[in-house]
Amino acid sequence: MTEPLGSPGSPRRRNRLRIVDELRRAGSASRVELIRATGLSRTTVSKLVAELQADGLVVERPAPGEGSAVGRPPMALSLTPAAGTAVGLDFGHAFVRVAVADLSGTVHAEARRDFDVDRDSAAAIDVAVEMVDEVLAEAGMSLERTVGVGVAVSAPVVRGRAERGAHILPGWPAFAPVDELEARLGRPVLIDNDANLGALAEVRHGAGRGAAAVLYVMLSAGIGAGLVLDGQLVRGHRGLTGELGHVVVDPGGAICRCGNRGCLETVAAAPALLDTLRPLHGDDVTLERAIALARDGDEGTRRLFADAGRAVGRAAGAVCNVVNPDLVIVGGDMVLAGEVLVDAVRDGIAEATIPAIRDDAGGAAARLGDRAEVLGAIGLVLAETDTAAIAGLAAGAAQNAVA
C-alpha cells in the first residue's frame, strides 16, 4: 500500500489533497470532472486516483441516474463512505432534527423530534445530544469517526456564533450552543442560520442547481430567507441578511416577537395559521394536521395557505425587485402543503415585481423539502472541515480495515 498522503508539503501530497478536497466538496465526480476542477493532467489524476483507491480512501461506483441500456455505465468517484461521518443538526423553533451522513454526503439515518427550542435552550441541547447518539447508533456509525457537527439555527449567525437576542431565541440569550455542543460531543461544531444552509443545500443539490442567483424562502414556525448570488451566500454587514419574516406587511397588525407590529410572520408563519385554524379544528391542531387538511381538499385550510403564500410572495417580490434572482425557491415545513402554497407565492411575486424581473424569478418548491436545512448543515461540515483532517481520518479507517 502506498503511504497515506505522501511527505508533508510534497507536490504529490498537495495534489492528492486537491482530489480529496474536490470529492469532499462535490460528493462525487468523474475523472473528467476532477481534471477540470483541479487543473491536473489526465495522467496525474489517473495515477493519484488509483493510489487513493488502493489506499481505500476512494471508491468508484456507477453514477446515480446515469444508467444506459447500451455500453458501460458512467462511473463516479467518491470518498470511502465508511471512512468518516458528518452530523447535521437543525434547531427549528419547535423541533430538533438530526441526520448523519458519510463523507460522500449520503444520509444513513435521520430523526425529528418536536420540542419548544425557543423557550428552553439547555433542554434543547440535551435533546440534540441524545438524538445524535441514537441516530449514529441506528446508522452503525460512531462519534469518534465524526469529522464535525453542522448546526442550523433559527437566528442570525455572526462570525460563526449565534446572535443572542430575546426577540429571536427567547430562551437562548445567555447560552452559547457551539461551546456547549463541542463540550458535550467532543467534536468540532460549525453553525449558520437555517435559511442560509437551506439555500446552499438547494443550490448545490436541489431545485437551484445551475442557477446563478437564488432567493430561498423558508416557511415554518418562522419565516427566513437565504440569498445566493454568483454561487456565494450573501450575509450582509452583521449576518442579518434574510430576515424576511420581519418585513412589516400590516403596520396596525399584531405584535411580533421582534417587537414590531404586523411583521410577515404574524400573518403567514405556521403559528399564525394554526391560531386561525383552532376555532375550526380544535386547540390541538398541528401543522402536520393542517397540511393534511389542505392536501385532502379542505377549502378553508387551502384558502389559509393560499393567503399566506400570496403575502410571502409579495414580500419576496420586493426583494426580487432589488436583487433580480433567476429563481425563487420555497422551502421549510409549510412547503409540504404543496402547490396551493407554492402557486400562491408565485402569484404574490407576480403582483409585486416589474414584468422583466417577474419573468426571471419564477418560483419552485424546494426539491429537498423540509430537510434542506439539516442537509445544508451536513454540507457545511463537508465544505469547511480541513481537507487534510478528513483525508487522515479516511486513511486511518482504510488501514484499520486492512488490518
Query: What class, by secondary structure content?
Result: alpha/beta
User: Given the C-alpha coordinates, what overall shape results?
Assistant: globular
Q: So how many helices?
A: 14
**Series of secondary-structure elements, N-terminal to C-terminal:** HHHEEEEEHEEEHEHEEEHHHHEHHEHH
CATH class division of the largest domain? Alpha Beta
Q: What CATH architecture of the largest domain do you see?
A: 2-Layer Sandwich
Which range best describes the helical content: under 10%, 10-25%, 25-40%, 40-55%, 55-70% or over 70%?
40-55%
Low-confidence stretches: 1-8
* Integer tally of domains: 3
Mean pLDDT: 86
- Walk across the major sheet and give the strand order: 5-4-3-6-9
Task: Please provide a brief summary of the model.
With 403 residues, the chain is α/β, with parallel strands linked by helices. It folds into three domains: 11-79, Winged helix-like DNA-binding domain superfamily/Winged helix DNA-binding domain (Arc Repressor Mutant, subunit A, Orthogonal Bundle), CATH 1.10.10.10; 84-193 and 374-385, ATPase, nucleotide binding domain (Nucleotidyltransferase, domain 5), CATH 3.30.420; 207-367, 2-Layer Sandwich (Nucleotidyltransferase, domain 5). 44% of the residues lie in helices and 18% in strands.
